[in-house]
Structures are given as C-alpha cells and as structure tokens.
Design a protein that fits this description.
Blueprint: E1 2-7, H1 12-23, E2 31-37, H2 43-50, E3 55-57, H3 65-77, E4 83-86, H4 95-100, E5 105-109, H5 121-127, E6 132-139, E7 149-156, H6 163-187
Parallel strand pairs: 1-2, 1-4, 2-3, 4-5
Antiparallel strand pairs: 5-6, 6-7
Bound molecules: 5-O-phosphono-beta-D-ribofuranosylamine.
The site of 5-O-phosphono-beta-D-ribofuranosylamine has 13 residues, from α1 and β5.
C-alpha cells in the first residue's frame, strides 16, 4: 500500500513509520509515497528528505481552508496514495479533503478520543495528573477526532514528574502502535458495509 504521510512539525511518527517500512512490521506491506507538510520549514520534512523519501509542501499560512485543501488533494492524488496518514498534521481537514480520501485517512491521537479531542492532549494528561493515557489510532471523518477507532493502547503515567516524561512515554507507544495498526489495516481493510437487500433483489 502506498502511504502519504502528512506532518507539520517534528515528524517522530513519520520517522517511526519509515523505519517500520524499511525493517519492521510494514516491510513488504507499505511504501512511503510522499511526506507532505503544510509548513515548508517543518523539521520532519527535512528529516524525510534526508532519508531519501519524496517530499512535497504547500504553505497553509493565510490560506482559506477549502481552497488550500483542494490544492493539497491535487498534490496528494498525484502520488496515488492508498492511505493518507496524519502524523502531527496540525490542520483540521475540510469536508473536501475528507471526501477525497473517504475511509482512507488515519490519525494518531495521544489520548482516548472519547475523552479528549484536539490539541495538547499530553498537557491535559499531565495537568490533570492522570495515572494513564490511552493512545488512539482512528479513521478520520469530518469531525475533530471523532472517527471510528482502529486501535488503542494504554500508557502508564504514574510517577511521570514532568511533561517531557509524559511525552517520552507516550511517543514511545505511539511509534509502535501506529505502525502495527497500519499493518493490520492494510492486511485486513475495513470494507464498506454491503447494501441491505430489499424485497426486489
Ligand atoms: C504526536 O503526539 C501525535 O499523536 C499528535 O501530534 C504529535 C506529533 O508528533 N497528533 P511527531 O511530529 O510525530 O513527533
């Protein structure tokens, strides 16, 4: 399967996925078709290029969401991705984008998406002294972190004294869970439900 990986920042999940493609659970199952960023200066884009991956970017700053997304969809389609993999992509996707890749957009969120949506999930866990967080990989629909959950894994946060420690523990789990979940999605794709038979069929 061809993956388009989208990021806005550091790109540690992108690197973990690229490594899983090279030597891990995604080997022989997936290839990185492109790493795309809405920030041409994103560190993760540089890191992808340094690995020899194809990269593309389009600055989102000051752009209207729909219009920007239409252009991004065009760029991504030219790489013929089977899955669009969000890895720290800091944009809410417009309906135009979601419909263009319906059922094939995947995201990772550092908390249970039933309990926390949007930004700053690790800060939320740390500030509220949560004993654990639940990393969530889910399909993306038109809401913010509302799509069907594909996999979750609990991270023990007991004794984590700093936000950095919370993030360190969480990211280590993210990096493993994301690759494993994509591997099972690729091997056992989620098929659309068959139409309900009527009297006439
Ligand atoms: C991760 O915590 C991910 O769950 C969230 O954004 C962060 C991206 O980190 N959606 P990185 O750029 O992959 O290092």
């Amino acid at each position: 399967a061809r993956l388009a990986i989208l990021l806005s920042g550091r790109g540690s999940n992108m690197l973990a996925l690229a490594e899983a493609v090279r030597t891990g659970v995604l080997r022989g199952l997936a290839e990185v078709a492109v790493v795309f960023s809405n920030d041409p200066g994103a560190y993760g884009l540089e890191a992808a290029a340094a690995l020899g991956l194809s990269t593309a970017s389009l600055a989102s700053r000051g752009r209207k969401r729909e219009e920007f997304d239409r252009e991004v969809v065009g760029i991504l389609q030219s790489y013929r991705p089977d899955y669009v993999v969000l890895a720290g992509y800091m944009r809410v996707l417009s309906p135009t984008f979601v419909r263009a890749f319906a059922g094939r957009i995947v995201n990772i969120h550092p908390a249970d998406t039933h309990q926390h949506q949007g930004l700053h999930a690790y800060e939320w866990a740390f500030d509220n002294h949560l004993p654990a967080t639940k990393i969530t990989v889910h399909l993306v629909d038109e809401g913010l972190d509302t799509g069907p959950i594909l996999a979750q894994r609990v991270v023990n946060l007991e004794g984590a004294a700093t936000l950095a420690e919370v993030q360190r523990r969480g990211l280590a789990v993210e990096h493993v869970l994301y690759a494993e979940t994509l591997a099972s999605l690729i091997t056992t794709p989620i098929l659309p439900a068959p139409p309900i038979p009527t009297h006439n069929s």
